[in-house]
Write a structure and sequence with these properties.
This protein is α/β, with parallel strands linked by helices. The protein folds into 2 domains: 78 residues, Ubiquitin-like (UB roll) (Roll), CATH 3.10.20; 98 residues, Translation initiation factor 3 (IF-3), C-terminal domain (Translation Initiation Factor IF3), CATH 3.30.110.10.
């Protein structure tokens, strides 16, 4: 049997530029014997001519999926379907490896309560969006004398965010900055509902207090 399975493609029939990552199929496979795997075949080692015949009988392609194995591993299936499955897997992998967003929140060593609550609210929003939060206290000039106060502030910040974030890095002093790193927690649907319910009930009270904060 000298040609590719009837109606199936070989390197010359695929069209377009040959990509380095393309796998050998059908008559492109040069090994004298291959290991067959997959559905509708009895797995085992076959002479290449026998493997091609099995693929032809099923009107499918013989695809060399592991060329470096001894003998090479081949699978019988439609080549276009195989390509679609591989592209889908790659897309899913890229989606899982999305770039991590880090939002920075800066405090002074003597941040007042209004400013603190304002930044706490922003941090909650960032964490809900799935971003990490890098919060730091910047010590300018002699304010470095208040580094303990800065550490207390960052620990309070982490504690107030415990429902939304986990601590990746405890407060650490680097030059004029003391930094803490927080990552978003994954909340279950029940926890989200429970967390949102009190906020709705407390909305009128919060609205009444807003003029006082100003």
């Amino acid at each position: 049997m000298g040609g590719a399975p009837k109606g199936k493609k070989n390197r010359n029939q695929r069209g377009g530029k040959q990509q380095k990552e393309e796998l050998a199929i059908n008559d492109e496979i040069r090994a004298p014997e291959v290991r067959l795997v997959g559905d509708n075949v009895e797995e085992g080692i076959y002479p290449i001519m026998k493997a091609l015949k099995i693929a032809e009988e099923q009107e499918l392609d013989l695809i060399e999926i592991a060329p470096m194995a001894q003998p090479p591993v081949c699978k019988i299936m439609d080549y276009q379907k195989y390509q679609f499955q591989q592209k889908k897997k790659l897309k899913e992998q890229k989606a899982k490896a999305t770039k991590v967003v880090v939002k920075e929140i800066r405090f002074g060593p003597q941040t007042d309560e209004h400013d603190y609550n304002f930044k706490l609210k922003h941090a909650i929003g960032f964490l809900k969006e799935g971003a990490k939060v890098k919060s730091y206290v910047f010590f300018k000039g002699r304010s470095i004398l208040f580094k303990e106060q800065g550490e207390v502030l960052l620990l309070r910040f982490a504690n107030d965010l415990e429902d939304y974030a986990k601590v990746d890095q405890m407060p650490v002093l680097e030059g004029k900055r003391m930094t803490i790193m927080l990552s978003p927690k994954k909340q279950s649907a029940k926890k989200k509902d429970a967390a949102e319910a009190p906020k709705e009930n407390a909305a009128p009270e919060a609205a009444a207090k807003e003029p006082e904060q100003e």
